[in-house]
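Supplementary Note 3. Input sequence used for the single-chain structure prediction.
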Amino acid sequence: MNKKVLLTLAMITILACNFLFPPARSEQVVTSSELELKGITIVRLRPEAGDLQTMLTEESQKATALGQIPVVEFDASWCPPCQAIEQSLGDKNELMLKAYDGTYIIKLDVDEWGWGDSDLHDFEFDGIPVYFKLDVKGKQTGAVVDAGAWNENIPENMAPVMDKFFHGE
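The predicted structure, written as discrete structure tokens, is reproduced below.
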């Protein structure tokens, strides 16, 4: 009888530990599928998942296969323009959805990746959010834009800048 009680207690403890302390995700990418944005893919890369350049190459190839433009976005949860962009996309603001249509956004949190860190492979910037277009190999094309390109962080200011950056004139 004692063995059954001990076995039951052990099972409850294991289940409680998994519930309270879930195992770390081994995935390299967390997809923002909750946004369900048509024509826009948003992924977040984590440093513990491996080499940044390898992941950028993989994600750029996925973007190309989907017919989308691969773009790296450096952001942070505390950044007001980053929050405004996230909220406007989450609210499905028409201006922002149109601007972001056809893009594959690869998000990198500067607090996770480190600013000026050698792992960032010559991505240089002074402020966030900042966006870098990538080629199919995950390398910078030279096209870059940051929050200094618009004034107040509202869709009416952000969307035209982002649309021009993503899609040209």
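Confidence is low (pLDDT under 50) at residues 15-35. Residues 68 and 102 are 5 Å apart (CA to CA).
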